[in-house]
Design brief:
By secondary structure, the chain is an alpha+beta fold. The protein has a three-stranded antiparallel beta sheet, with no helix packed on it.
């Protein structure tokens, strides 16, 4: 069994401590979720690895604003094949697709 020790710095009020704790827990669960998805896709266990997010560092977005309509379009730029392959394996390729805001 393991325990998570969280000690927020520069946080004084109970409300702020709870907010920091909540953010830390959300970050932990997001890491665990992504690590489990990658492990289920046949990759190694990345939970305690700096390599967990390495393939996703190349994801960049371009935002275009139409001044006449005010519509903003956000589109991801072309991904390296390895990053695209991982997103497909973990069923998150939709993150690469175009989005309209």
């Amino acid at each position: 069994m393991s325990f998570i020790k969280i000690r927020p710095f520069f946080v004084n009020t109970e409300k702020h401590v709870k907010a920091v704790y909540t953010i830390c827990m959300l970050a932990y669960f997001l890491n665990k979720f992504l690590a489990n998805r990658r492990k289920a896709a046949g990759e190694k266990d990345f939970l305690n690895s700096k390599e967990l997010y390495a393939p996703f560092r190349d994801i960049d977005y371009v935002s275009l604003l139409d001044p006449k309509s005010g519509q903003s379009i956000t589109k991801s730029v072309e991904l390296p094949p390895r990053t695209k392959d991982i997103l497909e394996k973990i069923e998150m390729l939709h993150l690469h697709e175009s989005r309209v805001k």
